[in-house]
């Protein structure tokens, strides 16, 4: 028996105010039938975990992932510039290609790093260079990282190259992943619900619903008290970058475009299009230090040059939905607060295992 469930408040929050990046992961439950819990998780503009949808199946097969992704696709429909992030399991790769072919399937950089080190040996220098290669924005900086990487271990370089730079490197990503380069948010969700994994399925579902209820209430309350135009985390991000911006040299080209000198690297910033040749401004959709240096010159508001995804107004909208207890079956008739779908595709029962 397969079962998919999500809450309408989560669907509404995602479609209206969440960056279109979804991390997917599966974890084993520890009940008597050894079911697998599938999860789709996002991140709000305050860098908090935002749970989107869940499913329960018998195992991580091609069929199971195709089933979960099909139900998920029915919920989110066709979202522009959708990015799905996961590890490199063949069953997930096959499912995403079949069910959501118009999405960008990004590789989790953390899983890729772990797999690389497991294959080619632990090497701190290699690990650090790989992390830098993942996170740099410019192709020329990425190329320098990969040259250093190959000089240390050419086989490891061939391995990560074979995955496709566009799947794990910011510099080559054809779509915006913002600051979400791994599926760690899904792993964090798994940690948040770990205490329910030995419960029966109904207990697991109600525990997850309770987590949703608490998060939505607490975050709605906190968001309503914000005085800033941006979320708390966005303001912290801006504060760090603004300090760096004070050391940059800015030379106006027009009223809204500028040449910026960042040590030995020149670049241009266009405030009208909210882009820069350093690529950070356009990729993350939040003011980078180069944009902030130009905003300082014109004395503009930095909040006007950040995506609404980072705004306190969007944060309030995300958690505006209410999450109520499911109640007894007779009370659930006609309810539209929940999306619960169960089915029994061709599948085999898995043997019981001890927790």
From TrEMBL:
One Pfam assignment: MULE
GO MF term (any one): zinc ion binding
Alphabetized InterPro entries for the sequence: MULE_transposase_dom, Znf_PMZ
Sequence ranges assigned to domain Zinc finger PMZ-type in this UniProt record: 274-301
Source organism superkingdom: Eukaryota
PANTHER family in UniProt: MUTATOR TRANSPOSASE MUDRA PROTEIN (PTHR31973:SF187), POLYPROTEIN, PUTATIVE-RELATED (PTHR31973)
Name under which the protein is recorded: Zinc finger PMZ-type domain-containing protein
